[in-house]
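Q: A small favour: would you put together sequence and structure tokens for a protein?
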Amino acid sequence: MGILSSLFGSKTEKIAKDMLGEYAKSAKERIPNQNYNDDYNNEPEETENVSSTGVSYGRKKPAEENQFDYKGKYTEYFEKVYREEFPEYDIQIDKETDSWKNASVITFYSGDNKVLVVELLSETSNRKKLRSECADNGIPYLRFYYNHRGWWNTRSYVVDRTKKALGK
């Protein structure tokens, strides 16, 4: 006997399970290539259903270059992508260490003008200060999580979001 049936009766539990089943089915239709491989640091067993570009979420590692394939730290991966894809900007990377969370901030400059701030955060971070400061000053802001399970930060995903934030 489940908790719902003990509280509301077995019909309620069945209705709730049916609703969850329908939601899960519709989620699979909304999110393509949701094939899962629990070992994120090994190559996937098969890649035939994995898009070569743009898919930056799911349990199966994308075939495209991504943060977890990079042979260095996640900050180095973002720096490499940004310096290669956006050479027209001066890029400054600051590693911040809070007593309870780690974060890195990547700032794009065009001349003396700050044109974009990118924050790399842990998925458990609840930092809001920098995002609020950017909004108050009219500076575009992006956030990427470096350790969220299933979020690969593929090169095209990082580049596309960054281009949009820069108005390109």
Q: What stands out?
A: The chain has a mean pLDDT of 77. The CA atoms of residues 135 and 161 lie 17 Å apart.
